[in-house]
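User: Hi! I'm working on a homework problem where we have to compare a predicted structure to a textbook description. Could you give me the structure for the chain below?
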Amino acid sequence: MATTSDLRNGLIINYNNDLHSVVSVEHRTPGNLRAFYQVKLRNLKNGKIIENRFRSGEEIQIERLESGNYQYLYKETNDFVFMDNETYEQINVSESLIGKSGNYLKEGEIIQIYFHNSKPMSVEIPPHVNLKVIEAPPGVKGDTATGATKQVKVETGATVNSPLFINEGDTIRVDTRTGDYIERVKM
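Assistant: Happy to help. Predicted C-alpha cells:
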C-alpha cells in the first residue's frame, strides 16, 4: 500500500470508492501542528474537482490505468466507435464520457483512451483539430470593423463562430475543449 508521500500530479488514486486524478499536491507543515498534504483531486467519472487534506503517512490506494491509441471510425446513436490500432478490435465509448469534444472528431482521428478493469474511464482528444468549412454564409460588407462573427458549419456537422472572412472550402483550426475558432489554416 502506498502512502501520501507517493502523491504526485497525474497519479490516479481510489478515493471514496471513485477514481480520482491528482491535480496538485502541497505538503504543509504548520508550526505546532502535524504535517499534512493538501491535495486537489479530479473525479474521473464526472470531472468535478475537490480538495482534500491527507495526514502525513496516511495510506492511499494507487490505481493503474491502461491506455492505448484508438482511431475514431464513426458515431452510432449515443456511442462513438473506435478501433484499436494494434488488434483492430472495435470498442464503443458512450457520448457522455467524451462530452462536447466529440462534435469535433473527424473520421480517422487518433485519440488516447484510458481503461480501468477493461472499462473505458476517460478519453484524451487532441486540443486542436483542423476542420474543413462546408457551409458559410457570405459576410456582409462593412461589418468587418466591428470584429463580427458568423456561424459556419464544419465537416463534422458542428457549428463554429468564425470571423466574417472565412468562406466555404476553407480549413480552420478549432479548440475541441471550447469549440472556439482559433485560426484559418493555410494549405
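For your comparison, note the following. The chain has three domains: 2-62, 66-124, 128-185. Residues 95-98 form the longest helix (4 residues). Good luck with the assignment!
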